[in-house]
């Protein structure tokens, strides 16, 4: 009886989330998948559906001239930007974890862009050039990089330098996550390592990095999902444009959105396999014996 009552209280506690998930997540997913299997037209009588199967998915890859191009650009930007954001967040978190004056104020400063710079605000700042560094000449950087790297990769790196302020503004949440796990590391581990003659660099590689490795995975996943849903993402804007296009419509845009979601899921799967905890053979044997 007690178990049933506790279960009832548990379901009652999470019921708002369950209702919100069913109404605002699951139902729109089902609806968009149904849209992707149809050609939709808005008429005076309302929406008209014509079933076309998976033709919209084929058209995304075979007939749309922009999706593949924007997708390749997005993947290249993700490969460059996600590590930069995570590494920057880790460095700042380690600095904020030191015993410095006004520690709380510095944490607020680094997290403040997450609150202020969102939605239309970031669009206005970018349009006014507030997110660029005037001293950085993108053309000169690309010209230097083309002597070592291919043109397509040099352009990606050049855009990274040109938008470095915007990219670093996206690291506020990651800094707090890293800071939380760094504060959980037992300081006696560092003291014992230093007594044995370990340097600060060795402490980082032998103690800090193995401890925070699961959190690195979390921050990589969060950063990828955040950039994938950013208002500055050109693929998101392309989906919006096709949604209200007279020749494409909701069906084609829904198919494009689903293909984009599948690609993001594959990228998250790759990140998971790269940064997941790997059990050694000895540890696995011990677990089996127990």
Automatic annotation (TrEMBL):
- Per UniProt, residues of the ABC transmembrane type-1 domain are 71-275
- Print the keywords alphabetically: Cell membrane, Membrane, Sugar transport, Transmembrane, Transmembrane helix, Transport
The way it spans or sits in the membrane comes to: Multi-pass membrane protein
Q: Which domain of life is it from?
A: Bacteria
Q: Note the CDD domains from the entry.
A: TM_PBP2
| Membrane-spanning parts | 9-30, 71-96, 108-126, 160-182, 216-240, 252-275
Q: What Pfam family is a match, any one?
A: BPD_transp_1
Concerning its family, UniProt says: Belongs to the binding-protein-dependent transport system permease family.
PANTHER family assigned: BINDING-PROTEIN-DEPENDENT TRANSPORT SYSTEMS INNER MEMBRANE COMPONENT, BLL4140 PROTEIN
Report the protein name in the record: ABC-type sugar transport system permease subunit
Q: What species is this protein from?
A: Evansella vedderi
Instruction: Write the lineage as a comma-separated list.
Output: Bacteria, Bacillati, Bacillota, Bacilli, Bacillales
């Amino acid at each position: 009886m007690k178990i049933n009552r506790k279960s009832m209280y548990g379901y009652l506690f999470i019921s708002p989330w369950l209702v919100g998930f069913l109404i605002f997540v699951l139902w729109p997913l089902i609806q968009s998948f149904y849209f992707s299997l149809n050609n939709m037209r808005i008429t005076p009588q309302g929406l008209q559906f014509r079933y076309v199967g998976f033709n919209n998915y084929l058209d995304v890859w075979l007939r749309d001239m922009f999706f593949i191009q924007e997708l390749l650009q997005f993947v290249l930007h993700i490969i460059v930007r996600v590590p930069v954001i995570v590494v920057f967040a880790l460095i700042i978190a380690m600095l904020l974890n030191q015993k410095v004056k006004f520690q709380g104020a510095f944490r607020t400063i680094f997290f403040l862009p997450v609150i202020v710079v969102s939605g239309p605000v970031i669009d206005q700042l970018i349009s006014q050039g507030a997110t660029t560094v005037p001293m950085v000449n993108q053309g000169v950087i690309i010209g230097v990089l083309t002597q070592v790297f291919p043109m397509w990769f040099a352009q990606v790196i050049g855009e990274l330098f040109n938008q470095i302020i915007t990219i670093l503004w996206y690291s506020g949440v990651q800094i707090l996550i890293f800071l939380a796990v760094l504060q959980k590391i037992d300081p006696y581990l560092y003291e014992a390592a230093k007594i044995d003659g370990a340097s600060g660099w060795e402490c980082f590689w032998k103690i800090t990095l193995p401890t925070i490795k699961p959190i690195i995975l979390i921050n990589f996943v969060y950063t990828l999902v955040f950039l994938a849903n950013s208002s500055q993402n050109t693929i998101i804007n392309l989906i919006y444009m096709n949604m209200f296009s007279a020749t494409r419509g909701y069906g084609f845009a829904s198919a494009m959105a689903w293909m984009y979601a599948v690609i993001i899921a594959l990228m998250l799967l790759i990140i998971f396999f790269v940064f997941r905890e790997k059990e050694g053979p000895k540890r696995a044997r011990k677990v089996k014996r127990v």
